[in-house]
Amino acid sequence: MASGVNYGGVPTLLFDVAYVGWIVSELLGAYLIPALRRSNGTEAYRSDRGSRLVIVLGILISVTAVFEFARFGLATFPLFAVYLGMGITFLGIAVRQWAIAVLGRYFSTSVRVLEDHRVVRSGPYRLVRHPSYTGVLLSIVGLGIAGGSWEGVVLLLGVSGLVFGYRIRVEERLLEARLGEEYRAYERQTKRILPYLV
User: Which end of the chain is more exposed for a tag (fewer CB within 10 A), N or C?
Assistant: First the structure.
């Protein structure tokens, strides 16, 4: 961690708190709890195409770079921006965990479809097709801001846009193929990430 860097005399412990909070929420909410639910459904189709590995590597490398930007003196944002970034990170965590909870046993960190899979339209899925990715992207933007540099924000947005763009294409192809017109109708009624925009 970039613990030697200061924002107006305050150590980057604030950034570290946001980052660790995000990692813990992913380990518990996106991996452990869904793994416990998985016994309630039989997987029928899987087509991940390496998207999970692409996401993990892309985010790991870019977040590490943000630490390095801060360590080498690129952290120039004022302290209030660091607090704002932390708030956005935790908002993203809340959105993602809400989406995961609503999706229930259909949620997985790999791209798959269960035998009894159906389109979920409740909770955040009324607004967008991929609210768990909306939550991740909010957290990543928040981490970039908490990291204190425009370079970090741009890098994290660019990398996450590429890796999640790829993941969404893989996921939607499988859902279109397996859920057919029900999913295509849902696609026509909703945006991917941001309500009414994208």
Answer: C
